[in-house]
Amino acid sequence: MPPLWWSRPLVCGDSGPDVEAVQRKLGLPVTGEFDLSTVFAVRGFQKSAGLAGTGEVDAATAAALGPRATDALTPDWYPGEPLYPGFQAYDLVLGDHDEAWLRRLQGTHGLPPTGVIDEPTARLIGALQ
Q1: Of 65, 70, 71, 80, which is most buried, counting CB atoms within 10 Å of its CB?
Q2: What is the chain's pLDDT, residue by residue, as a tens digit (129 residues)?
Q3: DSSP state of 20
């Protein structure tokens, strides 16, 4: 199962906190940009882990890289009770994303795709921030 920080295949040209997580895991300068140096480092890691050296971070590569140290922590913004669609706090947490995105994210990580921000979902979102 892929770690919480991984939510999509990562390829050259991608950017974001998930790319930063990969760069931290590989001891690279953290730029958040999946550039050629990241591709080469991922390829080397994959070969050393017995994976196909594609230079792309798929679910198997993410699982081999492992979780971030903060993956299991509940974020400070989580109120301790589920946040439902239509709640102002729900919209603030999701920002530019919507309920469909949240359901896909939940399903990708083995959580029930409810569209509700419960504690496991809050941890998942927190790991991506």
Answers
A1: 65
A2: 788 788 899 999 999 888 988 998 888 888 999 999 999 999 999 999 999 999 999 999 999 998 865 555 678 788 888 999 988 889 989 988 999 999 998 888 878 999 999 988 888 887 776
A3: H
CA pair distance 92, 11, nearest whole angstrom: 29
Whether pTM exceeds 0.85: no
Per-residue DSSP letters for 48-103?
HTTS---SSB-HHHHHHH---TTTTPPPTT--SS-B-TT-HHHHHHHTT--HHHHH
Nearest CA to 105 out of 120, 92, 90, 91 is that of 120
